[in-house]
Amino acid sequence: MWHTMESRGVSAIIFDFDNTLVDTAGAGRIAIQKVCELLKSMHVQESHIKDICDHFLRKLLHESFDPSEGKTIDDVRIHHWHEALQETQGSDPDPALATSCYYTWKNTRLQVLTLSPEVRALLEELRKSYTLLLITNGDTQTQWEKIEAVRCKGLFSLVVVGGDHPEQKPARSIFTHCFESAGVRPQDCVMVGDSLSTDIQGGIDAGVRATVWINSDCKSLPQGSVTPDYTVPSVLNLNDVLLKLR
């Protein structure tokens, strides 16, 4: 029985998804570029185009989505584009344009998003020795669309999407759900993610064996931030950390 084992070894790895395993930020930049091209082709004033996209991105960043209100995430995000066009141009935009902007952005992002061959190979290798788990924040539809787009579900014993649960990372409840469903103890797990406030804080609060911060921009730790046990520039450096935890 697993719970009688007193070994200090790591048996499970919990991964974050966006900007840890896949370059969501990079895919987003390409998607915005495509919207800029669309707006140009629709003869939107060139000086407005960047502002429209910046307005959309600000709304996306501060988005609150409540599925119980009867709207889909698509409705909410089409409305972000509608408002961005309205605020920048000062007049009521063609509703069809907001819809075109949204689906250009969404579909481009999903097409570009990919699990690199190197990351896929790493996960294939790690699955031979560890239970692999995925916990991603975000609404149900958006996150499952991304997971399906990169075809990675089969690499994990369990995939947990924040929007399917009462609370998202860093809440302890979503980690507890993950531990219980996968039959692992917190101290058997390593948490790997790019967000100090959700992944690293969440892992520490949940009592995992170690936290690994993916710091691709080589940023310094912000003042007053939580401190990860390990910091690496890419998930591809994870093996170095796992060797130390043996």
From TrEMBL:
<dbReference type="Pfam" id="PF13419">
    <property type="entry name" value="HAD_2"/>
</dbReference>
<dbReference type="InterPro" id="IPR011950">
    <property type="entry name" value="HAD-SF_hydro_IA_CTE7"/>
</dbReference>
<keyword id="KW-0460">Magnesium</keyword>
<protein>
    <submittedName>
        <fullName>N-acetylneuraminic acid phosphatase</fullName>
    </submittedName>
</protein>
<dbReference type="InterPro" id="IPR006439">
    <property type="entry name" value="HAD-SF_hydro_IA"/>
</dbReference>
<dbReference type="InterPro" id="IPR051400">
    <property type="entry name" value="HAD-like_hydrolase"/>
</dbReference>
<dbReference type="GO" id="GO:0046380">
    <property type="term" value="P:N-acetylneuraminate biosynthetic process"/>
</dbReference>
<dbReference type="GO" id="GO:0050124">
    <property type="term" value="F:N-acylneuraminate-9-phosphatase activity"/>
</dbReference>
<dbReference type="InterPro" id="IPR023214">
    <property type="entry name" value="HAD_sf"/>
</dbReference>
<keyword id="KW-0378">Hydrolase</keyword>
<dbReference type="InterPro" id="IPR041492">
    <property type="entry name" value="HAD_2"/>
</dbReference>
<dbReference type="InterPro" id="IPR036412">
    <property type="entry name" value="HAD-like_sf"/>
</dbReference>
